[in-house]
Amino acid sequence: MKLNCLLTVLFLLPFFYLNGLENTIADELMEHYESENCYEILPLLEGVISENSDNPLFWFNKGLCETQVEDYSAAKQSFLIANQLDVVETGKVTSERLYYNLALSELKLHNTNESLAYIEKALQPKKVPSPIFQDGNFSELEGNTRFQQLMTKYKPSLNRWTSVFLFIVFQGLLVFSILIFRKKGNKRSNIILGLFVLSFAITLAIFVLYWSGYIYVYPFTYFDGLFRVISYLFGPLLFMYIQSLFPERLNFKTIFHHFIPYIICFLLYTSRLFFDISDTIFAPLIAMLFNPWVRVSHMLIYLVLIYFYVEKEKTNVADNVKVWLHYLTYSFFGLILSYISYFILINFSFFNLDWAYMISFMISFFIILISVMGYMQPDVFWGFSMEQVFTFVKYKKSGLSESLSLELKQKLLSLMINEKVYKENTINLERLSQKLGTSKHNTSQVINEHFKENFFEFLNDFRIEEAKELLVNDHNHLNITEILYEVGFNNKVSFNNAFKKRTGLTPTQYKNHMLSSA
Questions:
Q1: Of these four, 62, 185, 250, 415, which has the most CB atoms within 10 Å of its CB?
Q2: Per the domain annotation, does 124 fall within a domain?
Q3: Rounded CA separation 195/180 (Å)
Q4: 233 with 365, same domain?
Q5: What confidence score (pLDDT) does residue 10 get?
Q6: Cis peptide bond N-terminal to 236, omega within 30
Q7: Phi and psi (nearest 5°) for 392?
Q8: Is position 14 within any domain?
Q9: Which of 104, 138, 153 is the last residue before a domain boundary?
Q10: Are residues 71 and 111 in the same domain?
Q11: Residue at a domain's end among 403, 418, 452
């Protein structure tokens, strides 16, 4: 209990770090403005103004107080000086807030055109939603045609691309739900892959909020900047997923350190919702962790870890698993490349804002890749079992004798040739082992040692051989779709892939070739 109290005090202490310091005149102006008693501090002495003449925050806060006492002419001059001194660069004031106050000052001075120009400047950079200028201070502009046009032009809305991205977000959430609640297959891998997809879906959803302008509308404002935090999950989750396909011992102790940057960023992010931590000792840490190049470096580190891990293990996995791992690695590299390209190009004047979609495209590609692979390779979608992952297994401690192994081999061939169990589209290693009257371990060992294949490759050999016979059988009236279900496949894509892998031809090409050569 004492330790928890100590940790709480240490965590909260930096938030009050500056409380003991003497307030500056800029701070005092803000305090008076927030308590609505600016008349007590204004007018300022000439000496005070002279001492703070190069402080942009002083001029901005002075303008706020002058607005409060309705000295709009003085407020306008203060805001203009703050703008000249680049008050936005201090990080304390947004350009939206600066132009809002300039627009209000001009309006109160009956300079309607100048006010509208500042309103557009406030709206333009980030497509800030119109409700900001519908707080009652601009009520006299409601009948102004140009004001109405600006409110319509910059109203939050979805365009063609953001609508597409939003659809992919829902697809990602669907894939996440399927993977999380799927009971069969490698459950651990499914959960990690599901969380990986979820992190991408949430990030893409936040990008949609940005592009559409809804990020500035309550309650979506709480998600502003959250994508920076989530980016620290990409590398660890992908690395954990790839490790989970192998007999790695993944537990809290072995994976916790991978998520330390994310945990720190998440705590800092949530703290900003309740405290102003811009003037605390946490500010430099936030600036560092939220820096785009730090986030890219974090992803690059995991790309290297993933690449060498896959290279080390690729000789021990089946071809379809090897292809899947390479897809994931190269796609992750493409994502990082899109981040780097964006962060470099945004500094050039020729950069088109439409190009900013490149990161969203790569995230969308990742979600679609996992969805498509789930359709083409169901074993990928549901999580590999160890029998599917490894092409060889070291059976040093196996109790399977040579004579029993040969006996199981013959019995296995009998099940395939005579009973044609491969035609059962629900057949799996467990059910086949039950038919053999042995364990899954023994069945896997027999297939690997005697046929040099994994379970699914062995099964598909018999399915394709029968499909070849049915395709050229004159007395067979089944079409290709009926044939694939007849021999035990569940979908056309898997059938075509397996058929072409063994014959070099598609089923249609094979049929035409055989008929033409007959």
A1: 62
A2: yes
A3: 8
A4: yes
A5: 42
A6: no
A7: -140, 150
A8: no
A9: 153
A10: yes
A11: 452
What is the pTM for the complete model shown? 0.59
**Does residue 13 lie in a domain region?**
no
Return the minimum-mean-pLDDT range out of 214-223, 230-239, 454-463: 214-223
Q: Locate tokens 């805001």: which residue?
A: 79
Which structural domain range is residue 40 located in?
23-153
CATH code of the domain in which 148 resides: 1.25.40.10
Which candidate, 60, 76, 64, places its Cα nearest to that of 34? Answer: 64
Least confident of 42-46, 213-217, 456-460: 213-217
Give 332's pLDDT tier (boundaries 50, 70, 90).
Answer: very high
Q: Which residues contact 450 (CB under 8 A, 6 or more apart)?
A: 405, 409
What the block records as the tokens of 454 is 């994994």
Locate 336 and state its tokens.
């990082």
Nearest to 203 by CA among 373, 367, 381: 367
Those residues with Cβ within 8 angstroms of residue 210's Cβ, 6 or more apart along the chain or in another chain = 126
The rounded mean pLDDT for the chain is 82
* Rounded Cα gap, residues 150 and 137, in angstroms: 16
Residue with tokens 């697809």: 171
Which whole number is the average pLDDT over 88-117?
89
* Side-chain-facing half-sphere of 450: CA atoms under 13 Å: 20
Q: What is the largest CA-CA distance in the chain?
A: 106
169 occurs within a structural domain = yes
Residue written as tokens 């379809």? 320
Domain check: are 303 and 176 in the same one? yes
